[in-house]
Amino acid sequence: MWRDAVLIAGRDLRIEARSRVALWQVLPFAVLTLLLFAFALGPRPGLLAQSAPGLFWLAVLFSSVLAAQRSMAIEGSGATRDSVRLLGLDPAGVFLGKVLALLAEMVALEAVLLGGVVLLFHVTVTSWGVLIGACLLAAVGLCTANVLYGSLAGEARMRATLLPVLVLPVVAPVLIAGSKAFSASVAPGSGSGARWLGILVVFAVVYSAMGVALYGPLEES
Amino acid sequence: MTNPMAPAIYLRSAVALAGRFPVLAGVDLDLDEGSVCVVLGANGAGKTSLLRLLAGLVPLASGEGAVLDCSLPGQARDLRQHVGLLGHDVGLYDDLRPAENLRFVLKASRLDPGLSDDALARVGITGRTASTPLGQLSAGQRRRVGLALLLARRPRLWLLDEPHASLDEPTRDLVSELTEEAARGGATVVATSHEPDLAIPMADTVVTMSGGIIATRAPGGRRGDRGWSDVA
Predict the structure, then answer these.
(1) pTM over 0.80
(2) Does the predicted interface ipTM exceed a cut of 0.90?
């Protein structure tokens, strides 16, 4: 399973390195989203800092859907999906490989967005451990959910509109827990981030297990 | 897995569905290992669906079926790794170069990635063409890369969906040549075609499909001039 996962992750990252869709489309979209949020709230440093956690995670969520669309488009045509099925790869390995490649992109994207939030929203982080932990755990949860629902959304012509409708409601726990953990990391008085990190762990574990178990049957259907 | 007495392909009253529509409505077909079968028929007759059933990509809804000793639909996943399918879309990655595409497939198939260079050279994908991303190659060149993939993987069952379509004469000759080589090497080949003049000479058996069933069956032109007058 892990051998197949590494193979698929390597393929997806190589394709991304060639096409640079994440670099030239997903990343600018994420940064633009953050900028527009800042414009919408206006030059009020207090309000910007207060809104930063939620807006950061909204930008991450929207960008994750876009990145997942691209990841699933690699097997966009029926013929490409068929050719992968003919290779006899472990479906769980294919799922994990796609998650690993998407995870690498999401972590890079979160790092850029985090820098943007600190600069634009006047945020001072006091507990980097909680924030980085939240970013990593949320990225795992978002990537697993996106790849699983991306497979469910099926062929490319439907996926573009169906994936956001399927994914955004189910990743609400990531938005809530991520925002609370972010708040805890910038304002020590707002409570411990451990509880929210726990929710992100549960979400990531549940969707990883669901993906490993269900990706094969979904691709077959 | 190989039973020398069993045919490579055995279908009885095979039905396959697309939604609720029977794309195959009771197909009977027997083919021996190492034989070449050409499938003729109008658009929508069920030719591509037959190939997908034989590849284990479409489930057998009813009837009996066994391909390369794998019973359908139960052992479809075991069957797939022995099947090579070349369709109109070669099912590879536009952003990767031909050699990168082949190396990925060979690694995934637990084969030596080094086989890709010889296979590409055999189909004439060399030099600058070999280092160009697949998406920038012509349809004919992409088809050659697909053929190279079959050559490198050496599947036991070759499924070719209109292999001569949209190709220049040298590439058409190459398709026929590689098909003959594969069959001589023991592979079973099933090819659909709208070009009987090209396809029938390379076939042991010619079948025509209509309405999701096999309407006629006749000998092809391979291994002697046996004619195919029974084919409608």
Answers:
(1) yes
(2) no
